[in-house]
Design a protein that fits this description.
By secondary structure, the chain is mainly alpha-helical. Helix content is 63%, strand content 2%. It has 2 domains: 219 residues, Cytochrome c oxidase-like, subunit I domain (Cytochrome C Oxidase, Chain A, Up-down Bundle); 206 residues, Cytochrome c oxidase-like, subunit I domain (Cytochrome C Oxidase, Chain A, Up-down Bundle), CATH 1.20.210. The chain has a two-stranded antiparallel ribbon with strand order 1-2. The relative contact order is 0.11.
């Protein structure tokens, strides 16, 4: 029998198996609207919900940019503008970034470590269904009197300790309650991920045989476990100040407003690493596949993720240089903040080492990963600048900080998420996306991101403050550029939406491993069966074995021919029959 005949047989086996999977009970679209305990369903629920709110947050952003295209405040009321500023940031962080990354991790981590599901499936489902609660409370906080417009983005005291409406339940209270509920959901998820990774790995899956994406998820969720209780406790204390008359943060009554900043930033700067670490994992998964090379420095990249998690606990005060912080504390936290660049730089050099002289394939996933890497390097340069006390004080509360933050959150994180969606879309849906539409999406996003956020650095260096609806005429040119970039980013999502929907419905069938990638998720069907594996795999080698000709597992899980009663294929040379025996 010729090799081509075997290829035809394999294609037919995959097709029949795919058709059988689609007919399994519980695999229809209705399951995405249920309290499912399947980690893959929960992962899709997170991703779709998060992307919906990504669009909502984007609408707020475009209204803000429309207001800023002219120096005068002539589009929306200033109070409404301030509330939109708050809503944009809240939605993009708590309803897009965190849920989308948790959704991706939910889908991939159990499969990548050879587990059938998460350790606590019901807790996993409960954590997701708190996200719509957070959304309702957040949006209600915008429309109910005394809401986010009065409270401001961070709800800093002493403003936040005042009750402008006199009602016990007002918009400000709802906004803070949303942050509290989001914290509870994230803590539940963190417990689940850490337990799953430590207790449910397949035989042979040692820590240093785990994919880097799993390492980064583990590191991020350890930060959540140790950092989130501070933000959650601060939220509870703030709600008590608003409702029952406590004075934790009211200086006029013996409280300490700066104490709230410590509660807030003790988590909220490490939260940046909670967000960025899984993106590092995505880059580490994508670059070897499309370079056809092993990940350079695998062990060092894995260890550097844990180091980032550890150092992240020592950086929060650099957000408080302008809050009367003692000089010795400024010096200590300036050094500790700069130290984060060391394990981060290790990852960048490892990715460059992986790409160097590789057989590169510039498909959509690779383009988004490369674009995200470029954005991250630029954000890292401005991040080192902001770690320095003199520069940080000079640009404090200006658009320089906004530009830096968005190069991290949009340029790196969002582009990294798009890279992940394109890379694992065939695995999740069993269908291929349209490459042409994907590349249009990339170039619109890459150009729009730089046009939107690069001019903000100049604006900030020249003194333009954030949260302002009107500004001096000399800032107009840069603001026009930024607004045009914002509108271009809004347009860039259209080809993505069209591509994903059409491809999911009627795209070309992908097969199990369209990218010829190495990893447990690529050894199962597309989409994976409900229990993930017919038999739990036994892992016998490290990941990223491109060019090494080493099997990943002892008994490689594959679509078993025995599951098909009989396949008859007509070839040009002969007739091939495959029977159960």
């Amino acid at each position: 029998m010729k090799i081509d005949d075997f290829k035809k047989i394999n294609i037919e086996v995959e097709r029949l198996h795919y058709d059988r999977l689609e007919k399994e009970p519980g695999r229809d679209w209705k399951r995405y609207f249920t309290f499912s305990t399947d980690h893959k369903v929960i992962g899709i629920q997170y991703l779709v919900t998060a992307f919906f709110f990504f669009l909502v947050g984007g609408i707020f952003a475009m209204i803000i940019r429309a207001e800023l295209i002219t120096p005068a405040s002539d589009l929306v009321d200033r109070t409404v503008y301030n509330g939109m500023f708050t809503m944009h940031g809240t939605i993009m962080l708590f309803l897009w970034t965190f849920p989308s990354l948790v959704g991706l991790a939910n889908y991939l981590v159990p499969i990548q470590i050879g587990a059938e599901d998460m350790a606590f499936p019901r807790l996993n489902a409960a954590a997701f269904w708190l996200v719509p609660v957070v959304a309702i409370l957040t949006i209600a906080g915008f429309f109910v009197p005394g809401g986010s417009a009065q409270a401001g983005w961070w709800s800093y005291p002493p403003v936040s300790t005042q009750n402008p409406t006199g009602f016990l339940i007002n918009g400000q209270f709802l906004w803070i309650l949303a942050i509290f509920v989001s914290g509870i959901s994230s803590i539940m998820g963190a417990v689940n991920f850490v337990t799953t990774i430590f207790r449910m790995r397949a035989p042979g899956m040692t820590l240093f045989r785990m994919p880097i994406f799993v390492w980064t998820v583990l590191s991020a969720q350890i930060i959540q476990l140790f950092g989130l209780p501070a933000l959650t406790a601060g939220s509870v204390m703030l709600m008590c100040d608003l409702t029952v008359g406590t004075t934790f943060f009211d200086p006029a009554l013996g409280g300490d407003a700066v104490l709230f900043q410590h509660f807030f930033w003790f988590y909220s700067h490490p939260a940046v690493y909670v967000i960025i670490l899984p993106i590092f994992g995505i880059f580490s998964e994508i670059f070897p596949v499309y370079s056809r090379k092993p990940l350079f420095g695998y062990h060092v990249v894995a260890i550097s993720s844990i180091i980032i998690a550890a150092v992240s606990a020592l950086v929060w005060v650099h957000h408080m240089y302008a809050s009367g912080t003692a000089n010795w504390m400024r010096l200590v936290f300036m050094i500790s903040t700069m130290c984060v660049s060391v394990p981060t730089g290790i990852k960048v050099f490892a990715w460059l080492g992986t790409i160097w002289r590789g057989k590169l394939r510039f498909n959509t996933a690779m383009l988004f990963a490369l674009g995200g890497l470029v954005m991250f390097v630029f954000a890292g340069i401005t991040g080192i600048m902001l770690a320095a006390v003199p520069i940080d004080i000079h640009v404090n509360n200006t658009y320089f900080v906004v530009g830096h933050f968005h190069y991290v959150l949009y340029g790196t994180v969002t582009m990294g998420m798009f890279a992940a969606i394109y890379h694992w879309f065939p695995k999740m849906t069993g269908r291929m996306y349209n490459e042409g539409w994907g590349q249009i999406h990339f170039w619109l996003t890459f150009l729009g991101t730089n046009l939107n956020f690069f001019p903000m650095h100049s604006l900030g260096l020249h003194g333009m403050l954030r949260r302002v609806a009107s500004y001096a005429p000399e800032y107009m040119f840069s603001n026009v550029l930024a607004s045009l970039g914002g509108f271009l980013l809004g347009m860039s999502t259209l080809p993505f939406i069209f591509n994903i929907i059409i491809s999911w419905i009627d795209g070309e069938k992908a097969g199990n491993n369209p990218w010829r990638a190495i990893g447990l998720e690529w050894l199962v069907a597309s989409p994976p069966p409900i229990e993930n594996f017919d038999e739990i795999p036994i892992v016998i080698s490290e990941p990223y074995g491109y060019g090494k000709s080493e099997p990943l597992t002892l008994d490689r899980p594959f679509i078993e021919v025995e599951t098909i009663e009989k396949i008859t294929l007509a070839t040009t040379d002969n007739q091939v029959e495959i029977n159960n025996n």
